[in-house]
């Protein structure tokens, strides 16, 4: 898929649990090759939206198309084909503590391919190399830092060469220097591999460092309050809450 083409399209998405609606009638698109960030205040449904987009939750209404296929309705082999296009890195990394980094990254290959073990090891090592962890391939997750665990989780998410990576709060719990290094990795992977990223985060420095476009979920209206370049929205949005959020301001007067 060429850079700039629509890779993911969300149409009329309403999500919630039981009779409680979290967000309704969401419409947006993610373009191939961009870093697309989902923003919003606490409880606005950022991570819930991501889980709908990867097929973990069933929507109340609407659909989610990935490369033209509806992940909300796909079954069997069609669903498997859609899921093969995506990779996911969860907030805490979700690495298996009893497995080395190489074994963690190799796992998706063991589950979804019939490659020889040597080939799987070579692929897993190459993914660790992409995130700067090849020399730590034999380490257990407990033996490395939190930032390295996040990078290893990204390597595992890339094991099957997905078209799009979904990252849930990748900078959560990291110090500013480690967070900035992770931001650089995300941008480098996008530029060198042409990979599409969908990122949930509320870290303003990361947002301005990595995002090509954002959507901002507003809890009160249960809708998208703004969409676009976060730097432009910060400086020119006419929505008071959007400007307060992106300027980290306590009041509506963000120019004082």
Measured distance between first and last alpha carbons: 45 Å
What is the helix content? 25-40%
CATH topology of the largest domain: the name is: Rossmann fold
Q: Based on CA inertia axes, which overall geometry fits?
A: globular
Task: Report low-confidence residues grouped into runs of 5 or more.
Answer: none
Radius of gyration: 19 Å
Domain module tally: 2
**CATH level 4 superfamily of the largest domain:** P-loop containing nucleotide triphosphate hydrolases
What is the tally of helical segments? 9
Mean pLDDT: 91
Characterise the protein shown here:
With 256 residues, the protein is an alpha/beta fold. It has helices at 46-53, 76-83, 101-112, 117-130, 146-157, 176-193, 204-210, 230-236, 240-247; strands at residues 6-17, 20-31, 35-40, 61-66, 69-70, 86-89, 164-168, 196-200, 213-218, 223-228. It has 9 helices and 10 strands. Strands 6-7-8-3-9-10 form a 6-stranded mixed β-sheet, with helices on both faces. Helix 4 (117-130) packs across helix 5. The longest helix is centred in the last third of the chain and has 18 residues, at 176-193. The mean pLDDT is 91.
Secondary-structure blueprint of this entry?
Layout: E1 6-17, E2 20-31, E3 35-40, H1 46-53, E4 61-66, E5 69-70, H2 76-83, E6 86-89, H3 101-112, H4 117-130, H5 146-157, E7 164-168, H6 176-193, E8 196-200, H7 204-210, E9 213-218, E10 223-228, H8 230-236, H9 240-247
Parallel strand pairs: 3-8, 3-9, 6-7, 7-8
Antiparallel strand pairs: 1-2, 1-4, 4-5, 9-10
């Amino acid at each position: 898929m060429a850079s700039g083409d629509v890779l993911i399209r969300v149409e009329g998405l309403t999500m919630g649990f039981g009779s409680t609606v979290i967000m309704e009638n969401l419409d947006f698109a993610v373009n191939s090759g961009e870093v697309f960030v989902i923003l919003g205040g606490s409880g606005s449904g950022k991570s819930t939206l991501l889980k709908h987009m990867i097929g973990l939750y069933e929507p109340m209404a609407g659909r989610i198309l990935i490369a033209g296929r509806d992940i909300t309705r796909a079954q069997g082999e069609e669903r498997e084909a859609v899921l093969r296009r995506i990779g996911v890195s969860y907030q805490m990394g979700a690495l298996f503590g009893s497995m080395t980094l190489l074994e963690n990254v190799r796992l998706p290959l063991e589950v979804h391919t019939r490659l020889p073990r040597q080939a799987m090891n070579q692929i897993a090592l190459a993914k660790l190399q992409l995130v700067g962890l090849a020399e730590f391939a034999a380490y257990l997750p407990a033996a490395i830092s939190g930032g390295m665990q996040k990078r290893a989780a990204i390597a595992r998410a890339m094991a099957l060469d997905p078209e799009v990576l979904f990252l849930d709060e990748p900078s959560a719990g990291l110090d500013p220097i480690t967070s900035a290094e992770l931001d650089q990795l995300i941008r480098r992977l996008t530029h060198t591999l042409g990979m599409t990223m969908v990122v949930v985060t509320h870290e303003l420095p990361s947002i301005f460092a990595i995002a090509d476009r954002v959507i901002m979920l507003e809890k009160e209206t249960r809708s998208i309050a703004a969409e676009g370049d976060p730097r432009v929205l910060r400086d020119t949005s006419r929505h008071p809450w959007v400007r307060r959020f992106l300027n980290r301001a306590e009041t509506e007067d963000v120019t004082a």
